[in-house]
Amino acid sequence: MKKILAMALLSVSLMAEAQLKVASYNVDNLFDLNEKGSEYKEYRSSKSNWNKRNYKAKLKHISKVIKLIDADIIALEEVESLQALKDLRLTLKQNSLYYKYFAIASKKDTTVKVALLSKIPYIYAKSLRIGSSPRYRDILEVKFQTKQMKKPLYLFINHWKAKSGPESQRIVSARALRKRIEQLGYDKDIVLVGDFNSDYEEYKKFKRVRRLNDTGGKTGINHILKTTYQTKPFSCSMQKVKKSFYNLWYDVKPKERFSYIFRGKKEALDNILVSQSLLDCKKTHYKKGSMHSYKANFLFHGKRINRWQIRGKRNPKHTAKGYSDHLPVSAEFILK
């Protein structure tokens, strides 16, 4: 009897271990200390106090948040360079969280880039080029396959154009992403993560904003990636829709659907979208109820998100306080 019980417990333990947590975090301009001239003015040491002390403080603060998440795979946005990524990885290791594998989309020399930290190995990591202009940040495509996965998992890390520009600029990234997905096939296990600078229902929110709506109401996230067909909480019996993606924000209570606050208004700019194959509970699939943004008290300053603090516009000075202007998001997947 004891032997049977032990085997049953072992079986449960193995099932519990066969899970994968995927997260995304916009780290709010993680610049290194090597000045190239392309940095934002507040990160030029000659004009501000962006120095070793403040750099170490920023690395420490970002590491604190990433350790709170403790994801198997974490996508990062707004990382300046491979050096900055390596320094963050080292800081995490010094704080007992080791990511053996890492990558950055460095093919195009944009001011900030998307990057990856992972506890599990990847088959490849490559940049998906988005136009030739530096205004468009490349997407990082990463392919994974572990012993627990019956087929590969493709992860695409995004950081689309900010809302300082109109929707047509975000559609450029969405179309390039969709073209690549069509090459792979919609039947693949695909996860799209990152800062899309688009709400999960962007088509409703931007429609009457003239400076944003230059596309006749069409959005990159909702129309190009087709995320408007499944808008109810996840269930194993939910109807599948070909060539579309399910936005995991719909598996979260409406009041909790945010990762950003702009002028007092909550927005869900950081998204996790999954292909239809990851909704099939007989195979590798999304774990119901696991999608959320992190809302620890220290990540807020009153009703605002406790971002990295820089005082003064004319002569900006770093205060070594705060974290990021975005909240991290994560979701879990059961590997069958």
By CATH, the topology is Deoxyribonuclease I, Chain A
**CATH homologous superfamily annotation:** Endonuclease/exonuclease/phosphatase
H/E element sequence:
HEHEHEEEEEHEHHEEEEEEEEEEE
Helix content: 10-25%
> Compute the gyration radius: what is it?
20 Å
Relative strand content? 25-35%
Give me the secondary-structure category.
alpha+beta
Total individual domains: 1
Examine the secondary-structure arrangement and name the CATH architecture: 4-Layer Sandwich
- Total number of strands: 19
Please tag this protein with its features.
alpha+beta; 6-stranded mixed β-sheet; 7-stranded mixed β-sheet; globular; Deoxyribonuclease I, Chain A; 336 residues; 6 helices
